[in-house]
Amino acid sequence: MGKKEEAKARLLGKSFQVSSPRLSAQEPPRYPKESLGCVSSQDEELTSQHEPLKKETGLPQIAPDLTVVQFIKVFPSVLLRMLRHPIFLLVVLSQVCTSSMVAGMATFLPKLLERQFSVTASFANLLLGTLAIPLAIVGIVLGGVLVKRLHLSPMQCSVLCLLGSLLCMVLSLPLFFIGCPTHQIAGITQDLGAQTEPSLFPGCSEPCSCQSDDFNPVCDTSTHVEYITPCHAGCTGHVVQEALGKSQVFYTNCSCVAGGGTVPAGSCESACSHLVMPFILLTSLGAMVASITHTPSFMLILRGVKKEDKILAVGMQFMLLRVLAWMPSPVIHGSAIDTTCVHWALSCGRRAVCRYYDHDLLRTRFIGLQFFFKSGSLVCFALVMAILRQQNKEASVKTTVESTDLQQL
Fold first, then answer.
1. Cβ atoms 316, 194 nearer than 8 A
2. Which residue, among 19, 78, 54, 29, has the nearest Cα to 315 in the 3D structure?
3. φ and ψ at 29, to 5 degrees?
4. Sequential DSSP letters for 126-164
5. Which of 20, 88, 89, 114 is 20 to 30 Å apart from 348, CA to CA?
6. Under a CB-based contact definition with an 8 Å cutoff, are residues 219 and 268 in contact?
7. What is the set of domains in the chain, with CATH numbers?
8. Where is the Kazal-like domain (predicted)?
C-alpha cells in the first residue's frame, strides 16, 4: 500500500510541474492602441465641454473651472439672459409679491391686532406664533407633497400656484369687515368740529392747564369716552383700591364726567375683542394657502431655465427677494400705517409715537396693501400659465409636423 501511494504522489507532482508553467506563462490581456486612443479623445471632448465656449445660439456658458477674469467677462451676458427669461422673471416677481405680503404681516400684524381689538402685545404675538406661522409651515410641506406625489408638470405647477393665490385672495376679503370702531377720544375723535390745536380739548378742563404732551389715559365707563390724561377729564383727586391682590387707581372729582364722577385709569376696553379669533384664523388660513405655492413656484424656476443656469437662477432669486421684498416691504407697510394716525406724541417738536389710530383706516389700508400684493402674485402666475400653455401648443404642433414628414418619407 505504501508504494502505491508514493507512485500517486509522484504522478501528481509531475502534472503540477507541467501545468504550472502554462499558468505562469499567461500574459495579462493587452488592449489595442485604438481603444486607448478612443478614451483619450473622450477625455478631450469632456474637457472641451467645460470650457467657456459658445453654443449654437451664440450665448456664453458658465463652466465650473473658469478663472475670475473669464467669469467676469461671461457673467453679464448670462445675467441678461436670465432676466430676459419670461418664466423665471414672472415667477420671481410673484414670489416678490408673496414675500412682501409675508414681511408686512410678520412685522405689523401684532400691532394691528393690538390696536384693532384692544389685546395685549404678548397675546397678539402669541396668536401669530401659535396659529399663523405653524399653518404657513404646513402649507409649505403640503405643497411639496403635492408636487412629489402627483408628479406635477410645469403646467400643473402653475395651475396649483394660480389656485393657491386666488384662494388666498378670497380668504382675505372678509378681513376688510372684521374689526372694531375707533374709540371715542375727547378732543380728538369727538366734538372736534373745526377746532385747532390750542382748543383741542373740552372746555371743562381749561382751568387745569393740562399739558398736551402728557399721556395717562382714563376711561369714562358710562359713556365709553376716553381722555388722554386725568387732567383732561377735569379730575382733581385719586384713590387706590385693592381688589383680588391687585391695585386699581381711580381718579375722582372729574368735572368732564357726568355728575363729576370717578373714572378708572387705563384705556377703554373694546366691545368687540371676541372678533380677534375669526380675524387671526382667516389670516392664518390665507398664509397656509399662500405657502402651498412655495414649492411649485420653486420647481417652475428649476424646470424653466437651462441646466447650466440653475445655480445662478436660484442665487438671483434669493437676491431679488431680499432686495425687492424683505427690505422695502416693512417700510411700505409702516408708511401706510402712519397715515392712519390721528394723534401723535411729540418729542422736541417732532412726531415720535402714534397714540391713537383711526381703526377703520388702519384695517382698510393694511388689508388693502396685503390684497394688492396678493393680486400681483395672482397676475404673475396667470401670465406664467398662459406662456406655458402657448409653449405646449407650439411643441405639440411641431411634433405633429415632424410625424407627418416622417410618414411622407
1. no
2. 78
3. -65, 135
4. HHIIIIIHHHHHHHHHHHHHHHHHHT--HHHHHHHHHHH
5. 114
6. yes
7. 80-179+273-390 (1.20.1250.20), 184-264 (no CATH)
8. 198-258
pLDDT tens for each residue of 45-56:
444 444 444 444
Alpha carbon distance 382, 246 (integer Å): 58
The string of DSSP letters for 40-63 reads HHHHHHHHHHTSS-B-TT--B---
Residue 141 sits at the vertex; the CA angle it makes with 139 and 146, to the nearest 5 degrees, is 95
Task: Look at residue 66 in the predicted model and tell me its pLDDT.
Answer: 67
SS3 350: strand
Is pTM beyond 0.70 here? yes
Tell me the CA distances in angstroms from 94 to 84, 195, 334, 365, one per residue in order.
16, 47, 22, 21
Range name among 19-28, 134-143, 388-397 with the lowest pLDDT average: 19-28
State residue 36's pLDDT score.
Answer: 34
Quote the percentage of the chain above a pLDDT of 90: 46
DSSP 85: -
User: ∠ CA(69), CA(79), CA(52), 5° rounding?
Assistant: 45
**pLDDT given for residue 46 in this prediction:** 42
d(CA 99, CA 320): 11
Q: What is the mean pLDDT of residues 236-246?
A: 81
Amino acid at 29: P
pLDDT band at residue 215 under the 50/70/90 scheme: confident
Average the pLDDT over 145-172 and give the result: 95
Question: Angle at CA 10, nearest 5°, toward 5 and 16?
Answer: 125
Residue type, 289: V
Closest C-alpha among 267, 105, 262, 258 to residue 180: 267
Of residues 285 and 353, the one with the higher pLDDT is 285
d(CA 22, CA 20): 5
Neighbours of 292 (CB within 10 A): 27
- What is the C-alpha to C-alpha distance for residues 153 and 90, in angstroms, rounded to an integer? 17
CB 105 within 8 A of CB 132: yes
**DSSP-derived secondary structure letter, 322:** I
Q: Give tens-digit pLDDT for 104-141.
A: 999 999 999 999 998 999 999 999 999 999 999 999 99
Q: Rounded to whole angstroms, what are the CA distances from 102 to 85, 90, 108, 207, 369? A: 26, 18, 10, 50, 11
